[in-house]
Amino acid sequence: MRRLTLVPVLLLSLALDVRSMCAQAPAAPIPAGATATERALITLENQWASALVRRDASFFRRTLDPKYVYTDERGVFTRDQVIAEQVGGTDTVTFATNEEMRVHRFGDATAVVTGMLIVRGRGAKGAFEHRYRYTDTWAKRGTKWLMVASQDYDTPTR
Predict the structure, then answer these.
(1) What residue ranges of the chain have pLDDT lower than 70?
(2) Is 0.90 surpassed by the pTM of this model?
(3) Would you identify the CATH topology of the domain 2-154?
(4) C-beta separation of 135 from 150 below 8 A
């Protein structure tokens, strides 16, 4: 009788472990010799990918400027519209990671990060993988970096 009780517990434990592994995407590496600003912005971009999987509205509210603007092939969107889509959409993101990130500095308080965001998950049409080429603009507000604008596009599959 003990074995029958133990099996469901082990299966549940295994399922939770597999689920947590799906959500654990590798962070893009920070290049050797990166400046403090480059390290901070690459870390924020990696945290963005992780927040996408977790649907972490508080992260997006903390890191998006109140006047944030986003554009893609569908149009122009506000901060609140972007947050609502990231945390309330019908798709389930199970994996997100960055590649090819480069930080472009414009003085001490402005920087642009370019890169590729790879997103995998499930939606109404089944499993998906998207590769978004992006440009994120960051502004330093006091000691904190905030994203003020973004643009991306879903690259065609090869």
Answers:
(1) 1-25, 158
(2) no
(3) Nuclear Transport Factor 2; Chain: A, (3.10.450)
(4) yes
